[in-house]
Amino acid sequence: MRALSRDALAVAAQPFGILADGAQVDLYTLRRGGGVEVGILTYGGIVQSLLVPDRTGRVANVVLGFPELSDYVAAGSLYLGAIVGRYANRISGGRFSLDERTHQLARNEGRNHLHGGHLGFDKKVWRARTRQSDTEVGVVVRHSSPDGDEGYPGALEIEVAYSLTRDDVLRVAYRAVATRPTIVSLTNHSLFNLAGEGVGDVLAHLLEIDADAYTPVDSDLIPTGELAQVRETPFDFRRPATIGSRIHVGDPQLVIAGGYDHNFVLNERGGLLQPAARLTDRASGRSLEVRTTEPGLQIYTGNRLDGTRTGTSGRPYERFAGVALETQRFPDSPNQSHFPSSVLRPGMTYRSATELHFGLV
User: Fold this and answer.
1) Is 253 exposed, middle or buried, given 0-12, 13-18 or 19+ CB atoms closer than 10 A?
2) Count of structural domains within the chain
3) pLDDT tens digits, residue range 304-331?
4) Is residue 2 part of a domain?
5) Catalytic amino acids?
């Protein structure tokens, strides 16, 4: 690929692989000369790579991912870098009621529904088009989910726009419309390691979250319905703390999940795009600020990674190899009336926006 002059923006596409059914998957690369470079797959809308310079100018890929399409297919439920939906996170019993009708969804995690079911959006080939302006470059991916898909009512048209700006911001804008009343919560399931993917664990990363409360879970990782205060608990990241500083303290919630796998109740934002969290790797100097319009943020510390999968670096991904910062509606919101609504009706438009601001400290 031709070298870019500093601050110049470019987008390019190339084949990435062929699925067993013959469908072609492409890789779209968004680049800023001298800055961030992002690779997006049409399979699952996956963020396959995210190259970011450190304080010395050395570039590293800071998201977990795989070098080959076959690796993503084989990995199945890891969801690395993917768009997940129609409903991100868990729904108890895979069942919800809407307008006095009960809907049974696919149960793909024991008795519960997770990240859209057996064949969620992470396993679909999305249509794509590029766009470019003087200030940003991007790729827009689209998918059509039919009525009854994984048990969800109504056909859904989804559009996700990835945009890279001149100031090293990756914007992710979600949009969806439905033909029948349904539920929607979309997010991206990237796991970050700001030291570089495959470079050890993220336990020394500093994490700060703008949340006074979180939603405790039961043994199935389903929210109990409580909005618990983080004060004097291992979930208090209102001031920066390393991820590993309290992860092994024996707190029952951390024992259940094997680490952090919890939804944080972001402080009131009124649907506006506002800072939600900051992640920092002091060794490399890389920092990531997450801004979102969403009310919730799922922190997942790669608890289920076990070293059996090898990433783009050629090194295996062990437990805690990355941390996900998933902006979302709350897990199990359809069954918890006091949680933010995830209902989408005909004539309405689902909109959600998240920005990843990369910088140095």
Assistant:
1) middle
2) 1
3) 999 999 999 999 999 999 999 999 999 9
4) no
5) 189, 326
